[in-house]
Amino acid sequence: MIQAEPIAVEQRIAFGDCDIVGIVYTGRLLNYGVEAIDEFYKQVVGRGWFEFCTDHKLATPFVNVTVDFRKPATPRDKLICHVAPTRLGRTSIVFSVIGKQNDAICFEGSYTCVFTSMDTLEKQAPPDWLAKAIAPWVG
Amino acid sequence: MIQAEPIAVEQRIAFGDCDIVGIVYTGRLLNYGVEAIDEFYKQVVGRGWFEFCTDHKLATPFVNVTVDFRKPATPRDKLICHVAPTRLGRTSIVFSVIGKQNDAICFEGSYTCVFTSMDTLEKQAPPDWLAKAIAPWVG
Amino acid sequence: MIQAEPIAVEQRIAFGDCDIVGIVYTGRLLNYGVEAIDEFYKQVVGRGWFEFCTDHKLATPFVNVTVDFRKPATPRDKLICHVAPTRLGRTSIVFSVIGKQNDAICFEGSYTCVFTSMDTLEKQAPPDWLAKAIAPWVG
Amino acid sequence: MIQAEPIAVEQRIAFGDCDIVGIVYTGRLLNYGVEAIDEFYKQVVGRGWFEFCTDHKLATPFVNVTVDFRKPATPRDKLICHVAPTRLGRTSIVFSVIGKQNDAICFEGSYTCVFTSMDTLEKQAPPDWLAKAIAPWVG
């Protein structure tokens, strides 16, 4: 079975996320990668983390974030994050996010989340509508 | 030689860093760990990243961040980050940051930075005053 | 009756909140003033916004923020915010926050919040324990 | 002379900017208004604050921010900020930003900035290319 392509998420780099060195501060660049995963869900599932929580009482807390930074990012160009789930476990999911500016890789990250009840934070299997939507990547 | 103990950095968790689930949002929690390293420098070297840049033209961009999240953090308690350099390379440094609330581990991270010229971002050896200050951990 | 003095809230200015100009970015400096109000509550009431929400189902959304910026702030020094309620209405409260570095005023702001049910966001009178705690300033 | 219409700047509301109440935290909502001004410049002048600083040594620090909040914002919808300069002084500029979700006003703000040298922060007249670009609103 042929895997679906990563989803390209375009993000504006805010002036205020750039530090005195003239590059995006690591503490914020990490967040761009995290937010790109929410955008993946919005584009693929039609709902993001806010709707997961509010409408489905589903939370997906992160259990691991690993990012390699290759090249500084700047506010001069858009950041294009290429996002794809790479592994779906029984109660967890791994995402790959590759952040690029002008086709050069700024960072490559791996992000592992677990599916939980929003109220108890107990692990659970992903709901069917979610598993179905991401099946083209990890089915 | 006996290694120095990690430095304990106390941080207030801001209300606004807590999401609708009632726990600190990953995109911000990552930043608490990053900021704790700056505080380590301020406490140990007497200067932080701002002074490194402004007074010494020294930048220390991150090349890797790896964090395992063990337990959600909340604004109800202070976050105590235990910070220590664990390895000093010729042009790089690795930090361990363990974030705790009420003695329970919220996250454990490893952060690798390189020493560079602020103007060219070319790698360089750490300045003597910095190498000397961190020698009790990695000397 | 003699009014109580403003509460001094000390905040570290994060490196990442400083922009390429070398001063704290307005979008973040505004947040330091907002967070200082939460710290006022923690120091005076013994509980902050998180506990208001979680334990009392009380939210206090802002209806107006007005800030004059006098002098750029930098990460080189601590920010000391002098916080005091200046007026208590039937369902609203006004705070004054004066942010200083090295005794020079960086900003002066006025912040108006309303007391509401967290669940419905309907306006309500402040609970007695809160009104009592802030009476020394606005009683 | 007929004044140009405000520029509509579309922004995604990040999940992490939403607090435990389920609405966008004031400390972040303030930043959306500030960032919208940078986007106005990018769309109208073809350059934003980062290019002002880096390429023109021009900084435009804020001297006043006044915002009325009308209705909570949520991550469920895009935020559309309607941005227009309303007054151009000899060394200052006033912007109006009206933030809407689904055609309902979330906030209305007035933001005053001064034009300065990035290096000295001394006030100066705006450069010709900038004054010319914003003339349709304040000429």
Structure characterization notes:
4 copies of one chain form a homotetramer. The first copy, chain A, has 139 residues and is of the alpha+beta class. Chain A has one domain: Hotdog Thioesterase (Thiol Ester Dehydrase, Chain A), CATH 3.10.129. Chain A is 27% helix and 35% strand. Chain A is built from 3 helices and 7 strands; from the N terminus they run βααββββββα. Chain A has helices at 26-44, 49-56, 128-138; strands at 7-11, 58-59, 62-69, 79-88, 92-101, 104-114, 116-117. In chain A, strands 1-4-5-6-3 form a 5-stranded antiparallel sheet. A two-stranded antiparallel ribbon of chain A has the order 2-7. The first copy, chain A, is globular, with a radius of gyration of 15 Å. The first copy, chain A, starts with 6 loop residues before the first strand and ends with a helix. The A-B interface holds A 20-21, 23, 26-28, 30-31, 34-35, 50, 53-54, 59, 61-69, 72, 118, 121 and B 20-21, 23, 26-28, 30-31, 34-35, 50, 53-54, 59, 61-69, 72, 118, 121.
Reconstruct the topology from this structure:
Four copies of one chain form a homotetramer.
Chain A: E1 7-11, H1 26-44, H2 49-56, E2 58-59, E3 62-69, E4 79-88, E5 92-101, E6 104-114, E7 116-117, H3 128-138
